[in-house]
Specification:
Strand order of the largest sheet: 1-2-3
CATH topology of the largest domain: Tetrahydropterin Synthase, Chain A
CATH architecture of the largest domain: 2-Layer Sandwich
Strand content: 15-25%
Shape: rod-shaped
Distance between the termini: 94 Å
Length: 172
């Protein structure tokens, strides 16, 4: 009798496995559905609570054009870009400018190379003073040129800076 009971239980197990094989795709679908449903629900909730579909904000792009300077390139010194933060009470955040200087003598390069950090610091001092003087968009470029030339020539011994060129002048 015990053998008969075991055989019947064995038949039930085999029958259960046969049914499971027949419904394998359905069981897999249910398992995937149970896994995916919380993800879909979260996505729908996020979509509903964030109008616009979570689109990123558009950012205005700025293109910079560096104007070529027509001059004797042997005595032109490129000072690169200067960025100066503006005071908090001004609508703009900073101004950026790119400066090149025309030198009186090509021998002045050696002195400038040795004093480059000092000269850039002096220029930043002039620019910070101009930024704090009021509204930066009202700063005269000619006055700024004169101030920078005067400050730099006060530090140079072997020659002078004849002129300053602004290749970029942005108030952002």
């Amino acid at each position: 009798i015990a053998g008969l009971v075991i055989a019947r239980q064995h038949k039930k197990v085999i029958a259960g496995l046969a049914i499971a094989r027949q419904h394998k795709k359905v069981i897999a679908g249910l398992a995937i559905g149970l896994f995916m449903s919380p993800l879909v629900a979260y996505g729908l909730k996020h979509w509903y609570t964030h109008p616009g579909g979570g689109a990123r904000q558009k950012v205005a792009s700025t293109q910079f054009y560096r104007a070529p300077i027509k001059s004797d390139s042997r005595i032109l010194w490129d000072l690169a870009v200067f960025v100066v933060l503006l005071p908090e009470d001004v609508d703009q955040a900073y101004f950026s400018l790119s400066i090149s200087a025309r030198l009186s003598d090509s021998n002045l390069y050696r002195e400038i190379d040795s004093k480059k950090p000092l000269l850039r610091g002096v220029i930043y001092g002039v620019l910070n003073k101009a930024a704090k003087s009021g509204r930066p968009q009202m700063v005269s470029k000619e006055k700024l040129k004169r101030d920078i030339i005067g400050a730099l020539n006060g530090l140079l011994v072997t020659g002078t800076i004849d002129d300053i060129y602004f290749a970029e002048f942005l108030v952002v």
